[in-house]
């Protein structure tokens, strides 16, 4: 089955996604030393975490020696303020933005809109999102939406001569052409540095499209944002992380582009903003300190069984429980672009089944279930159906005698009531229980009776 | 050997056939079974972030099982065992937890470790499909030397099944969570049902669905039989726990 054949058919499209998951798993198995690489990457992150303050100081000194201006931001608001003031200082009216989870976390787009600064994404998913298109859809649906937008557009020049084909290759070519036209005239660019090597004073970018690298080669003002916990000692350690990042993100051996930036180009300005945004506090928290080991490969999301099963639930797909826990796991109230209400958070935390698949695939062994437990603990008093069920369970589980009594009544009811009533009483268990043979005694009662009979004989 | 049995509440009260089969199996293998007062391990509370009550439940069990004179503590459920194990790991500096931790074994792990089927003839000449258990595959594999990949059954379980005569194991294409844990069926019932249906093909030609996790078995079985009722031509397979399979096989 070709990809183009599958585009109009969501189940087939899902089958292709599953094939991609298998491809990634196969990549793990093909690499004989995968477990060793995984351990090395974890060790690198743990080592960096232990001497983070030292590495940050070293990085700042090295970059300043090389002509880079280093700034610090305690949260997203401060980061955005610094970006805006940098743009104003250099009299830039527009900004090109590379694909970045950190910039999304800081909600840079909203801050720039408030200041009337136009923002152009350099990645295709960002470009689509900016056009108001849901990127979780398949290519056929995306093409359809783009087509509808163009048909409604009053700008005659924007309408293409030929209709957009629901083919990912053509769609990619069209979007890439549009993006690169904008890059040619960019005044400033902001990208997220994936990692930084303190000893070398180097910022590392990692990607597949190469558009942000193009923009960095053109723009006279280059701004790099770096998460506080993304600093490692040297480039060898960066390679240890990049080695597990590629196979885990897309199933590739390596990502297509790994670019190292150390100093500004002649007659240009290079800035680095190091963002904390709750990370330093999380590092001190026993349940959340492990989150800084995350390298953002999204393998946990892709292998989460809830996400795999939620093809018919787009809202669930958008809020994968594990990545939500990662994003919301910080102790500070973060200024998140996708911020949810407390009740919604409680609902998302209820999606995790705690199966542990995310921890198995994680290349840096982030204790995700511990973070999820902490997150759930924070939302334990939220009034929701789940919470009420939890209260009933707590009453039962806390006392063995109450549990025994409930079990006794459940067994009696199973004998007396019809199967339909069981479903009402026991919820989702009812259907299953109705299929099993009813029992008169619990195992404890059966065992005690047998022991008595043995004693008598 | 003296074996203290740890039963899931679901098995103890509502599906006692599994508990009885476990006791009979262990006795058939020549072990002395002890069944102390049973209480909840607190696993369901984990889904609601109720760490305080979860710890209280686990502590009750640690006090009860830690004071028993037994060689092993065996459970026919990986979830309950994992909950207790995690509590013991967090409190390993306590005397009782330190004593109890190495004794905790899931039933299939215990049977593999003691090479229970090595010198005994176990025959079960049927086609079976093995239901995936996340907690047995991911949670209890920490101390195993072999690394576990996503969707792979624990190697010890496959080794155990390979020792059964006449058994034909059908490979499952989807080995993933069935969606029963974490309060998912309460809050997102449709999603949990979809996950359960994905675990078992309908209609299927197998005679038995076998698993090592009673709650997963009941959940998947319910959803499968619901779907089977709409397909009357298919023959409904029986859902059994590994303990029941081995107990019948050794007879």
Explain what this protein looks like in three dimensions:
The complex is a heterodimer of chains A (457) and B (251). Chain A contains 25 helices and ten strands. Chain A is an alpha/beta fold. In chain A, strands 1-10-7-4-2-3 form a six-stranded parallel beta sheet, with helices on both faces. In chain A, strands 8-5-6-9 form a four-stranded mixed beta sheet, with helices on both faces. The longest helix of chain A is centred in the N-terminal third of the chain and has 21 residues, at 10-30. Chain A starts with a helix and ends with a helix. In chain A, 39% of the residues are buried. With 251 residues, chain B is α/β, with parallel strands linked by helices. Chain B has 13 helices and eight strands. In chain B, the strands form two sheets. A four-stranded parallel beta sheet of chain B has the order 2-1-3-4, with helices on both faces. In chain B, strand 7 (208-211), helix 12 (214-229) and strand 8 (238-241) form a beta-alpha-beta unit. In chain B, helix 2 crosses helix 13, helix 4 (51-66) packs across helix 5 and helix 11 packs across helix 12. The longest helix of chain B has 16 residues, at 51-66. Chain B is globular. Chain B starts with a strand and ends with a helix. The mean pLDDT of chain B is 84. Classes of the chains: A alpha/beta (457), B alpha/beta (251). The interface between A and B is large, with 72 and 67 residues.
């Amino acid at each position: 089955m070709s990809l183009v054949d599958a585009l109009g058919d969501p189940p087939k499209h899902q089958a292709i996604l599953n094939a991609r998951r298998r491809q990634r798993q196969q990549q793990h198995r093909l690499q004989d030393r995968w477990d060793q690489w995984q351990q090395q990457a974890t060790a690198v992150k743990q080592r960096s975490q232990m001497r983070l303050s030292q590495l940050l100081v070293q990085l700042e000194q090295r970059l300043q020696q090389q002509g880079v201006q280093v700034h610090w931001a305690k949260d997203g608001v401060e980061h955005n303020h610094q970006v805006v003031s940098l743009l104003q200082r250099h009299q830039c009216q527009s900004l090109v933005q590379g694909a970045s989870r950190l910039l999304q976390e800081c909600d840079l787009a909203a801050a720039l809109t408030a200041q009337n600064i136009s923002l152009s994404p350099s990645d295709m998913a960002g470009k689509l999102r900016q056009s108001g298109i849901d990127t979780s859809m398949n290519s056929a649906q995306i093409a359809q939406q783009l087509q509808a937008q163009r048909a409604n557009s009053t700008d005659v020049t924007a309408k293409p001569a030929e209709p957009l084909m629901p083919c990912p290759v053509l769609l990619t070519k069209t979007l890439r052409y549009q993006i690169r036209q904008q890059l040619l005239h960019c005044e400033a660019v902001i990208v997220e540095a994936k990692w930084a090597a303190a000893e070398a004073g180097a910022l590392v970018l990692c990607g597949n499209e190469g558009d942000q690298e193009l923009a960095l080669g053109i723009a006279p003002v280059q701004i790099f944002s770096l998460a506080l916990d993304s600093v490692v000692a040297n480039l060898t350690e960066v390679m240890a992380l990049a080695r597990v990042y590629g196979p885990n993100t897309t199933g590739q051996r390596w990502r297509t582009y790994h670019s190292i930036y150390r100093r500004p180009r002649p007659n240009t300005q290079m800035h680095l903003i190091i963002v904390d945004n709750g990370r330093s506090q999380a590092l001190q928290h026993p349940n959340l300190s492990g989150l800084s080991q995350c390298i953002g490969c999204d393998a946990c999301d892709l292998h989460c069984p809830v996400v795999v099963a939620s093809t018919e639930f787009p809202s669930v797909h958008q809020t994968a429980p594990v990545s939500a826990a990662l994003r919301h796991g910080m102790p500070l109230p973060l200024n998140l672009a996708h911020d949810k209400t407390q009740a919604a958070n409680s609902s998302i935390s209820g999606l995790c089944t705690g199966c542990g698949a995310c921890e198995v695939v994680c290349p840096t062994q982030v204790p995700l279930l511990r973070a999820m437990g902490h997150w759930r603990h924070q939302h334990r008093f939220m009034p929701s159906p789940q919470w009420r069920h939890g209260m009933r369970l707590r009453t039962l589980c806390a006392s063995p005698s109450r549990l025994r009594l409930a079990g006794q009544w459940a067994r009696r009811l199973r004998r007396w009531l019809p199967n339909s009533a069981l479903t009402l009483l026991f919820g989702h268990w009812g259907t299953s229980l109705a299929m099993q043979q009813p029992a008169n005694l619990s195992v404890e009662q059966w065992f005690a009776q047998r022991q008595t009979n043995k004693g008598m004989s | 050997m003296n074996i203290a049995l740890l039963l899931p509440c679901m098995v103890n009260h509502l599906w006692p056939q599994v508990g009885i089969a476990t006791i009979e199996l262990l006795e058939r293998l020549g072990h002395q079974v002890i069944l102390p007062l049973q209480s909840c391990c607190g696993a369901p509370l984990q889904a609601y972030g109720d760490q305080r009550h979860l710890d209280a439940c686990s502590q009750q069990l640690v006090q009860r099982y830690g004071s028993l004179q037994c060689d092993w503590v065996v459970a026919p459920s990986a979830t309950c065992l994992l909950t207790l194990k995690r509590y013991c790991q967090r409190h390993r500096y306590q005397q009782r937890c330190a004593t109890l931790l190495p004794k905790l074994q899931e039933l299939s792990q215990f049977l593999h470790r003691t090479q229970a089927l090595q010198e005994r003839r176990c025959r079960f000449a049927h086609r079976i499909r093995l239901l995936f258990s996340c907690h047995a595959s991911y949670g209890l594999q920490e101390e195993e030397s072999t690394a576990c990949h996503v969707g792979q059954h624990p190697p010890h379980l496959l080794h155990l099944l390979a020792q059964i005569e006449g058994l034909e194991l059908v490979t499952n294409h989807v080995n993933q969570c069935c969606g029963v844990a974490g309060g998912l069926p309460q809050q997102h019932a449709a999603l949990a049902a979809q996950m359960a249906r994905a675990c078992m093909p309908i209609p299927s030609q197998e005679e038995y669905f076998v698993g090592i996790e009673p709650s997963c078995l009941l959940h998947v079985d319910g959803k499968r039989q619901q779907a089977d009722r709409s397909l009357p031509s298919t023959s409904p397979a029986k859902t059994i726990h590994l303990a029941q399979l081995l107990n019948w096989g050794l007879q």
